[in-house]
C-alpha cells in the first residue's frame, strides 16, 4: 500500500491546487519551459491516464491517445484522478506492470507517479501565482525517490537541471532537484 498511499497523497495535493485555476489562468506560463497551464494540465491528464493503464489492463503503451476536453482541462484532470485512485485502490494481484514491454513493480509505478503528480501539482499553483508548498511529509517521502526516477538522461528534455536549494524545507529541496525555483 505504500506506493498507492503515496500516490493518493500526491493526487490530493494536486487536486487541492486545481481549485485555484480560473479560465484566464490557462494561458499563464508554468515552471515547465514552453508550457502554459493548459498544456501542463493536458500533460498531467495524460500522465494520470498512463497510471490508470498500469492497473487496468496492467500495461502502459507509450503512444496512447489523449482524450482531454480542450475546453475544460481542469475537469478532465479531476475525473482522471478520481478514476485512477479508484482503480489502484481496488487493484488486486497486480504486482508487476508492463511499461513499454518492460516489467516494473506496482510500487515503482505508483511511486514514480507520485513524483510526477506532486511536482505538477506545485506547477499548477505556481502558474496561478499561489504559494502552496508541497506538504513536508509528502516531500520527505518523495525526495529520496526523485534521483531514482529522474536521471541525467531526463535532463534537459523532461526536467531542467537542478538548482541550488539552500537546504530549505523538503518540498523546496525536491523542487530544486527537479529544476524549479521554489
Describe this structure in words.
The structure is a single chain. With 182 residues, this protein is mostly helical. It has one domain: dinb family like domain (Four Helix Bundle (Hemerythrin (Met), subunit A), Up-down Bundle). The chain is 52% helix and 5% strand. The protein has a 3-stranded mixed β-sheet. α1 runs parallel beside α4. It starts with a helix and ends in a 5-residue tail after the last helix. Pfam families: MDMPI_N (PF11716). GO terms for molecular function: metal ion binding. InterPro entries: CHP03086, DinB/YfiT-like, Maleyloyr_isom, MDMPI_metal-binding.
Topology:
Blueprint: H1 2-18, H2 37-55, E1 59-60, H3 73-89, E2 96-99, E3 102-105, H4 106-127, H5 136-142, H6 146-149, H7 170-177
Parallel strand pairs: 1-2
Antiparallel strand pairs: 2-3
Helix pairs in contact: 1-3, 1-4, 2-3, 2-4
Pfam families: MDMPI_N
Domain Mycothiol-dependent maleylpyruvate isomerase metal-binding: 16-125
InterPro entries: CHP03086, DinB/YfiT-like, Maleyloyr_isom, MDMPI_metal-binding
Quickly count the helices.
7
For the sheet with most strands, the description reads: 3 strands, mixed
* Low-pLDDT regions: none
| Beta strand % | 5-15%
Looking at this structure, what is the CATH superfamily? Answer: dinb family like domain
Key features?
globular; 182 residues; Four Helix Bundle (Hemerythrin (Met), subunit A); MDMPI_metal-binding
In short:
Residues 16-125 form the Mycothiol-dependent maleylpyruvate isomerase metal-binding domain. The chain has 182 residues and is mainly α. The chain is 52% helix and 5% strand.
Amino acid at each position: 500500500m505504500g506506493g498507492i498511499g503515496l500516490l493518493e497523497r500526491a493526487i490530493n495535493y494536486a487536486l487541492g491546487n486545481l481549485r485555484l485555476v480560473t479560465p484566464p489562468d490557462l494561458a499563464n506560463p508554468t515552471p515547465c519551459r514552453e508550457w502554459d497551464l493548459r498544456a501542463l494540465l493536458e500533460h498531467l491528464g495524460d500522465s494520470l491516464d498512463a497510471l490508470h493503464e498500469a492497473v487496468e489492463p496492467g500495461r502502459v503503451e507509450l503512444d496512447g491517445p489523449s482524450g482531454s476536453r480542450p475546453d475544460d482541462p481542469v475537469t478532465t484532470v479531476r475525473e482522471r484522478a478520481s478514476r485512477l485512485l479508484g482503480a489502484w485502490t481496488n487493484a488486486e494481484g497486480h504486482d508487476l506492470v508492463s511499461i513499454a514491454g518492460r516489467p516494473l513493480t506496482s510500487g515503482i509505478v505508483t511511486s514514480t507517479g507520485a513524483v510526477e503528480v506532486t511536482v505538477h501539482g506545485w506547477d499548477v499553483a505556481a502558474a496561478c501565482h499561489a504559494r502552496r508548498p508541497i506538504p513536508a511529509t509528502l516531500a520527505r517521502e518523495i525526495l529520496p525517490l526523485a534521483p531514482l526516477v529522474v536521471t541525467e538522461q531526463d535532463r534537459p528534455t523532461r526536467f531542467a537541471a537542478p538548482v541550488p536549494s539552500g537546504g530549505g524545507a523538503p518540498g523546496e529541496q525536491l523542487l530544486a532537484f527537479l529544476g524549479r525555483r521554489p
